[in-house]
Amino acid sequence: MQNILLLNSIVRIYLQEVIITLGNDAINEELLRGAIYVDNAKDKIDKGFINVTLTDTIKVYDAPHLNVTCDTPTRDIKIPEEGLIIMPRDLYIGATIEFTKTYGFVPILNESDELAALGLKTHITAGFGDNGFEGTWTLEIEGSIPVRIFPYMFIGTLNYYPLIGEGDTLYRGKYFKQIEPTASRLSEEYNKGRVRRKC
Amino acid sequence: MLTTNEIKKQIQNGKIIINNLSDGALKKPNSIDVSMGNTLYVYDYGILDSRMARTYLDEVLKDKPFFLKKIQIPETGLLLEPYKVYLTKTTEEIETHGFIPVLNGKVAMSLLGVSIELNSGYRWDGYKGAMLLSIVATKPTIIYPDIKVGNLTFFPSLEPSSETRIVNGKLCGVYNSGMLSGSEIKSRMEGDNPDIFIDNTEKIVINPNSVNLTLNENIGVYTEQVLDIKANNPYKNITLEEGMYLYPEEIYLGRTNEWTVTNNLVPMMSGRSSLGRNGLHVHCSAGMGSVGYEGYWHMGIRPTKPIWVVKDMKCCQIYYFTLEGEIENTYNGIMQNLPENELGSQMHRILKKKD
Predict the structure, then answer these.
(1) I need a surface site. Which of B18, B95, B153, B203 has the fewest CB within 10 A?
(2) Which residues in chain A have their CB less than 8 angstroms from residue B140's CB?
């Protein structure tokens, strides 16, 4: 009996220690619970945010004009190690390396003030996420002046707002489970049967 | 989000410290006004290296320009050119203990096509100092020194909750503050005195945690080549019939079809992922609303590349934050109840009030 009690105490102390060393942050708690998932989150938590990084592929639209009712063709560009120059007047679609899943919270993608100092935008007024979203985060990169970007660079942070109210409506939309940099699928909304149409 | 009343309480508690607060900065219901001074930092040369970002940021925050060039904004005004970035920092210096500061731009500047931060408004609990302002103009715009350019909001930094619930089979913490889910938004639209009113309720599309609004056919385009933030910049009305092209280097003044009223919550406008992927901005760093706002949502729309848009398209999403603290006053500012044909920036009225 005494051996079992001793074992119990040891296990309890060990568990307490694990929780304390991972931190008292709410983010850590929710990661442990499984509400929030981000690839390799443990190494990326900083001051209540989770850092995300850019993959090495970028898409650009292969046409001078875009159209909300049809999908403009894109072209893949690999970001070389020596960097890729982002030019103004163009849009570069990237993705985070990190695959994420969020339930019971609203995830938000933010840019850091460091990147803003370069005049670089990493998303176009669309950083708010959805309860139930699963996938990598799409980055819509736009520069005001030419900037050289690098593969696997720090590209932003995620923070989470608790969801208030019933969380039964989950994101199951156009970009669910996306992994690659994904261009707009808006044409689904303008064509019958939610079929996408190429321009 | 904290009400201004709560912000004042926390200032008294010493949990939020703000130096160089300007007169009347605490008049809004859930944010405080922040300003910029008369100094800007600009890049002197061509291609920037993103690995130097931290260095450039420190030069601005510490006022030690080396790679950057320091320029003064004269009282007569300085011309902001498009495809440039102008860096500076807020006059106000903050320090928080238990709160997350978030900087947003002002709608009046957004409707002039001027962003003051690039999705970079979030700081962390424990942030200390002035905040970076990253100013980008869409059209050549004359700016003046010592003006209020942003709204600073605060969110409580949450401790892990002990209460949990299950969402989609996952264990999630239950908290008292955050963002409303779609079901909660729906329930707050019901009853005689709803927290959320959006006209045209039957057609409204409710997402997992936001509401979609649509683009009205009235679009405004400024007629002058150069904008002046002190002037009542004239614009002409275009009716979006079937569709039209939007071009970069132009700022388009649009509004939602839907008239909205928000009580006891803070509404926040954001673009849509599908539009963002097409390079279409629906505001210039200024999506944040105020509790008590009544009106259409005004958008400063600009595209990265030329894009064909159509009438009544779903153009933005509204999210709702809970409020923490006593609501002392509700929004009664310059955007309140604007007539449906009024699309222009009201910045000239704000600046006149100051004089």
Answers:
(1) B203
(2) none
